[in-house]
Design goal:
0% strand
């Protein structure tokens, strides 16, 4: 059985001519086709937006776990207490 490749989906949009010229110039400077430049730039920006949203938004489960952790009584962590005590005894430059 031969595998048939589906064509890549297309995304069409209009832009002002000055933006098109800048995009073409930027693509050329990077040695990319306009399509490769635009796809790369869109991909990077989409990843940034999605990652920022994921970092700022907790799922319901994660929110519940975070609030439950805040509600639990504090416990002493000996290694942390020792590190903090050592830090407090370190002379500070002012």
């Amino acid at each position: 059985m031969s595998a048939t490749r589906e064509p890549n989906p297309r995304l069409a949009f209009r832009m002002k001519s000055d933006l098109k010229k800048r995009v073409e110039e930027a693509a050329s400077l990077m040695g990319l086709t306009v399509t490769d430049f635009v796809v790369s730039t869109l991909s990077e920006r989409a990843s940034e937006v999605l990652e920022r949203q994921r970092r700022l938004t907790l799922s319901d489960r994660d929110r519940d776990r975070f609030l439950a952790a805040l509600s639990r009584p504090a416990r002493v962590i000996p290694e942390l207490a020792r590190t903090l005590a050592e830090h407090d005894n370190t002379p500070h430059a002012e």
